[in-house]
Amino acid sequence: MNDKTKQLGQIKNLIMLALADGKATDSELALVASIASRESLSQDELDNLIDNPESVKIELPEDEETKKRYLTDMVALMMIDGEMDDNEIALCKLYAISLGYDSSVVENLVLSIADCLNR
Length: 119
Known about the structure:
By secondary structure, the chain is mainly α.
């Protein structure tokens, strides 16, 4: 599988997470757009994914660096609006487990990101 497929799958995960609490805030959408740009996805690719999320199959990354980056993206997105909904937390924990991590890594990332934000 190519990197583009994995990148699109990651953005799909982020979109699903942004919608997990029933609403996607402007800050969540801005972060998703920023991450899509970082992953070299075009605005057209992002728009198409938002309009047709079922068109993309989610493929998990295999290398450790990408796994950590993708999970950190998920947790940062969950935190960006200042509210961590139970559905968002559950999705992040499920994603962590699917990547081969213990679900407790999510709490550790929340604390780490919060610490960075408070500096």
